[in-house]
């Protein structure tokens, strides 16, 4: 599958590498094609470094791995047109600058805001509940991390569920895109546990069942 990733930071770079290892063809973009981080991420992942518009045009699935505060700037009119009709995965969390609280929530979510910016795309929420380094480690302490996936389009959601499973997570359909209102605070809790409770970054969540 061709996958476009917009964002070459901690999450985008790891997902690019993992998806390339699984045999997908990845094009990755950053805010500037001259970004050293983009060059490093592309080289480490075996991905093609390109512009956001070209990454969006290239991907059958497009992953938005940019901070929520930069989302509107990243989704210019050319990118919006390029992702029309495509599966777009929002991995952002609307965290405050200190990472300890949410900028928005309760009655909406970052995912719903992204869907509003991309009215012709099929937006799915996923990967936001996994801390950045742990996208390369789906199993922590012998326990497979759960990967909640929310979306309104069943075909798009199925594609993302399959990608999550392929990456080694326990991908779980959690319902419509509005469920992101419950998923985004999960990362806030993980940050609280990791930093304020000093549990470190190698933590994640799993759904227990009987």
From TrEMBL:
It holds the Pfam family F420_oxidored. One of its GO terms (molecular function) is oxidoreductase activity. This is Pyrroline-5-carboxylate reductase catalytic N-terminal domain-containing protein. Transmembrane segments: none annotated. Keywords: Oxidoreductase. Residues 3-94 form the Pyrroline-5-carboxylate reductase catalytic N-terminal domain. The keyword Oxidoreductase applies. It comes from Micromonospora pattaloongensis. The keyword Oxidoreductase applies.
């Amino acid at each position: 599958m061709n996958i476009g990733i917009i964002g070459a930071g901690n999450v985008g770079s790891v997902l690019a590498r993992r998806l390339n290892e699984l045999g997908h063809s990845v094009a990755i973009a950053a805010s500037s094609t001259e970004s050293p981080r983009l060059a490093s991420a592309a080289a480490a992942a075996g991905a093609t470094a390109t512009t956001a518009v070209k990454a969006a045009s290239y991907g059958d699935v497009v992953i938005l791995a940019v901070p929520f505060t930069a989302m509107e700037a990243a989704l210019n009119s050319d990118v919006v047109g390029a992702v029309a009709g495509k599966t777009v995965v929002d991995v952002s969390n609307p965290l405050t600058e200190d990472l300890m609280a949410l900028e928005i929530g309760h009655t909406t979510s970052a995912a719903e805001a992204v869907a509003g910016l991309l009215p012709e795309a099929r937006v799915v929420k996923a990967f936001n509940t996994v801390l950045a380094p742990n996208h390369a480690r789906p199993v922590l302490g012998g326990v497979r991390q759960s990967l909640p996936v929310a979306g309104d389009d069943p075909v798009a959601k199925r594609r993302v569920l399959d990608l999550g499973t392929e990456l080694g997570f326990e991908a779980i359909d959690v319902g419509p895109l509005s469920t992101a209102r419950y998923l985004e605070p999960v990362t806030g809790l993980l940050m609280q546990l990791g930093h304020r409770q000093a549990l470190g970054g190698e933590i994640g969540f799993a759904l227990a069942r009987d």
